[in-house]
Every structure is written in structure tokens, then in C-alpha cells.
Specification:
The protein has strands spanning about 5, 25-30, 35-40, 45-50, 55-60, 70-75, 80-90, 95-100, 105-110, 115-120, 125-130, 135-145, 150-155, 160-165, 170-175, 180-185, 190-195, 200-205, 210-215, 225-230, 235-240, 245-250, 255-260, 265-270, 295-300, 305-310, 315-320, 325-330, 335-340. The protein is mainly beta. Residues about 5-25 have low confidence and may be disordered.
Length: about 350
């Protein structure tokens, strides 16, 4: 098991700050506790810009060409948010704030292939929104009828969306062309993280309260497999080649690497507890002294991935060739949602 050890001296269990990781340019990291987005240059590892967002930015998604990133402004427990922040990556600029009212608590977000529209979950309204980003308005709301509709994934052909509903322990399959929900699939308690395989055949869902991962047939909507997971699986991200599924575990402070074909856990990358700061953060001390890994992003080239450590205010980067930790990046306070862009700020 590989280890990233977070201590006062920032000791990395495995440290390899090699500059051979060419290709990726910018990682946009949302910082929930300070309402900001950090733009990290992936060659240098430095934050080159910090931009304001709405309160409680949770999830980020890059447009198909990587030029723009949407951030969902979820708000706080007491004051729900109702907006999106649109970021121009190359110019390090906030282009606009999209008002979603009367829809509240936007969370999961994915762009559609046209690069003009995006789908966004609205927890308070039990809905999936289709947003015209260029026009800055909601063009359709699709009811899920489920509690806490949280994360969303879209099939590569754009025909269907899948929404994970934490409170109902289910996934809602949605026909995007018809703008309606097809079926609710009971996957497990606390269904939250979700992603679709590159071939569009499977949907992987993390059931955080059940400590399981469900594999759903995207066509028949039947559960093909239920896999055991480490503690509190909160995100699922499938690698570009479709071979592996990365699952972050908030309580056990690690990332599980699943073989997408067999369902076996082939590795667990441990992000050990260290200097954590939980004051004023969403989960508080719910996970003890865990570094609270949540958001996961992957390099489309398949060379590396990043995991946001909300408890430690850091982002761990690891090499997907051998699953070793390569470096720790510093963003802002309580990092969570992330988006990769092939563009560099200023170019």
C-alpha cells in the first residue's frame, strides 16, 4: 500500500517531483471553506491564480475543450446556494455567475458534448437541471423524486444521465433527449459518487453508508455486481482507458483502485492522517483525524490522478503507472471538487 504522510514537516511517504509529467497544464481546485477556486499550474505545481466563487463551491467540471470550468455554489448547511461560477481558464477570469433561482443547492455538474449546455443537480428541488451556459439560464428541470440528488454522470453519447441520490440510496436514470426520468435504481444506502465507463455500458456508484460499490448496466438498468469497499466511499472516477475505477474513502483516508473488468481491488493508496484542520469544515470531526479524501480527477493521458484532501488542505498527486504518490499540491482551505484543463493560464 502506497503512503502519503501529512505531518508538520510535510513528509511525503513517496516523493518524486519529476518534471517528466508533460501534457497536463492546469488543475482547477475548489476550496469550500473560503469560496474560491485555485488554478494550479501542473508543470510547476504552483497556484498561479485564485478566483472568487459563490459560497460553498463543491463540484467542478471542465468544458469539452477545457477552456471553461463550471463551479457549483452549494452554499452552507444554513444558507443554500443557488448559482454557478463560470471560469475562463487561460485568462484566469470569472466570466459570469449563473443564477439558478428558484433552484437551490446545486452540486453535481457535467458539461454536455456541445460545449454550450451542462447538467447540474439541485438537491433542494430533487431535480436535474439542464443549463444553457452561454445564455446563463436554466432551460429545463427534470424531477428525480428522490432525496438529496447529489452527483451526476452522463453517457458518452449524451443520451442518458445518471443521478446519485444520497437520501434515497438510489440512482435515477434520465433520458436527456426526452427530458424525463426513466427509472430509479436502488443501489445502496448513501448512494453518492458516480461515473460512467468510456464505452457507456456501465455505471459505477459508491454507496457511502453501506461501504459498497454498485455496478449498473447502463442499458438494462440492472445491478450487475455489488462490490465491497473501504470506509465511506464518496467518489468514483473511471480512468480514460476504462481499465480502472478510483474510489475515494473519506473515513479510511485512502483511494481504492478497482479493476473495472473483474471488480477486484488491486491497490489502496493510503493518504495517512497527519496535520488535519477540521474547524469550520463541512464534515467536521465526523471522520476522526482522517485527511478526508473526496474529489478525484484524472489526466486524460492516463499518466496521473489527483485526490483532494479536504481535512488537510492539500491535493495528492499520484502516478497511475505504478500507483505511487508523486507530490502534494497546496490549494486553499477545504479543497474538494476539481477539474483538469489542458490549457495553461496565460496561453
Amino acid at each position: 500500500m502506497n503512503t502519503l504522510k501529512l505531518t508538520g514537516g510535510l513528509t511525503l511517504g513517496i516523493l518524486s517531483l519529476c518534471s517528466t509529467l508533460a501534457g497536463a497544464q492546469t488543475l482547477v481546485v475548489l476550496n469550500k471553506a473560503e469560496a474560491s477556486a485555485s488554478l494550479i499550474d501542473l508543470d510547476s505545481g504552483a497556484v498561479v491564480a485564485t478566483l472568487p466563487t459563490g459560497v460553498g463551491p463543491h463540484e467542478a467540471a471542465a468544458s469539452p475543450d477545457g477552456s471553461r470550468v463550471l463551479a457549483t455554489n452549494y452554499g452552507t448547511r444554513d444558507n443554500p446556494g443557488s448559482s454557478l461560477t463560470l471560469i475562463d481558464v487561460a485568462n484566469a477570469d470569472v466570466v459570469s455567475t449563473i443564477d439558478l433561482a428558484p433552484y437551490q443547492r446545486p452540486h453535481g455538474v457535467r458539461w454536455l458534448a456541445d460545449g454550450r449546455r451542462a447538467v447540474v443537480t439541485a438537491e433542494s428541488n430533487k431535480a436535474l437541471l439542464i443549463v444553457d451556459v452561454d445564455a446563463g439560464r436554466v432551460i429545463k428541470a427534470i424531477d428525480t423524486g428522490q432525496k438529496i440528488s447529489h452527483m451526476v454522470a452522463v453517457t458518452p453519447d449524451g443520451a442518458r444521465a445518471f443521478v446519485a441520490n444520497i437520501g434515497s440510496g438510489s440512482v435515477t436514470a434520465i433520458d436527456l433527449s426526452q427530458g424525463r426520468a426513466i427509472e430509479n435504481i436502488d443501489t445502496g444506502a448513501g448512494a453518492e459518487g458516480i461515473d460512467v465507463t468510456p464505452d457507456g455500458r456501465e455505471v459505477w456508484v459508491t454507496n457511502r453508508a453501506a461501504n459498497t460499490v454498485s455496478v449498473v448496466d447502463a442499458a438494462t438498468l440492472e445491478i450487475k455486481r455489488t462490490l465491497a469497499s473501504a470506509d465511506f466511499p464518496i467518489r468514483a472516477t473511471i480512468t480514460t482507458d476504462g481499465r480502472h475505477v478510483l474510489v475515494s474513502h473519506a473515513r479510511s483516508a485512502d483511494v481504492g483502485v478497482f479493476d473495472a473488468k473483474t471488480g477486484d481491488t488491486i491497490n489502496r493508496i493510503s493518504l495517512q492522517q497527519g496535520d488535519v484542520d477540521l474547524e469550520g469544515k463541512l464534515f467536521g470531526d465526523m471522520f476522526g483525524d482522517s485527511s478526508i479524501p473526496i474529489g478525484v480527477a484524472v489526466d486524460p493521458s492516463g499518466s496521473r490522478a489527483w485526490v483532494a484532501l479536504a481535512g488537510s488542505d492539500m491535493v495528492a498527486e499520484f502516478d497511475m503507472a505504478d500507483w505511487t504518490i508523486s507530490r502534494a499540491l497546496t490549494a486553499g482551505r477545504e479543497p474538494d471538487g476539481m477539474a483538469y484543463s489542458p490549457l495553461r493560464v496565460g496561453r
